[in-house]
Write a structure and sequence with these properties.
mainly alpha; MetI-like fold; 13 helices; 75% helix
Amino acid sequence: MGKSKLARREAIRGFLFIAPAFIMLFAFIMFPIIRGFGFSFTDYNLLKSWDRNIIGFVNYTKALSDPDFYQVLGNVVKFAFGVTIVSVILSMAIALLLNSVTKCKNIIRSLVFMPWVLPEVVVGSIWRWILNGDKGLLNSILADRLQIMDSYIQWFSAGFALLSVGVVYVWRTYPFVTIMLSAGLSSIDREIYEAADIDGCGKVQRFWYITLPQLKYVLTICSLMALIWSMNGFGILNILTAGGPGLSSTTLPILIYKTAFQKFRFGLAATYSVIQFAIIMVFSIIYLKITKAAGED
């Protein structure tokens, strides 16, 4: 009986220690998620907050039957997968170069990592100046200095906006992926490469049959993380184009922001958020399964 009371007392004490963390978790994460799900089934409009009605799946029907919504989803697919693929390929090339550097490796790594530590406001402002269609640095170099072009290119026009933003997000994303891949390359046993050299393997064969298989886990994790980050990208994109012109560079976070804080239709914005949440959850589950499998191995 004494042991039972002691065990109960210890359990209560342990619960009291973790209770503040649970309260914070519920208040700032779980409650907003539950509240957002609830809003998605209402016609909640901030300008008519006193008149809120439950309308069931009307918002979902409206969203899934809207051609503009599918254009936005198409932008998300092109943007997120494009940024991820280019970032991983570029990062792999840079990581291989970094791995071959023998002098000042830490300094070079710090310089490579610099774009990742800059605030999004700074990154957006710098690239908005670089890609400005009238007085931008890139147009000045290509048209005025090198005279490659006869006229300036409007990098944020409908035809180039998504591509331009994608380039900026690649510049922002590649440092983290590079450092991860560089760490993965450093962990590969050098004896494997020595054995491959003895067998007469060339650089391409070494990369294809040794480096890539050894980096499979790191590559998968980096790709999934880059994909999720790109899908959630908002700050830089909002500074550069705000989703325009029209819907040419609008992604789900931009659509949610405009629907909620420009049109004040919180119910429909919550619906878009739930759809994005479901998409992100699919990739998050894949990520968790991969990391769990790696931990068990």
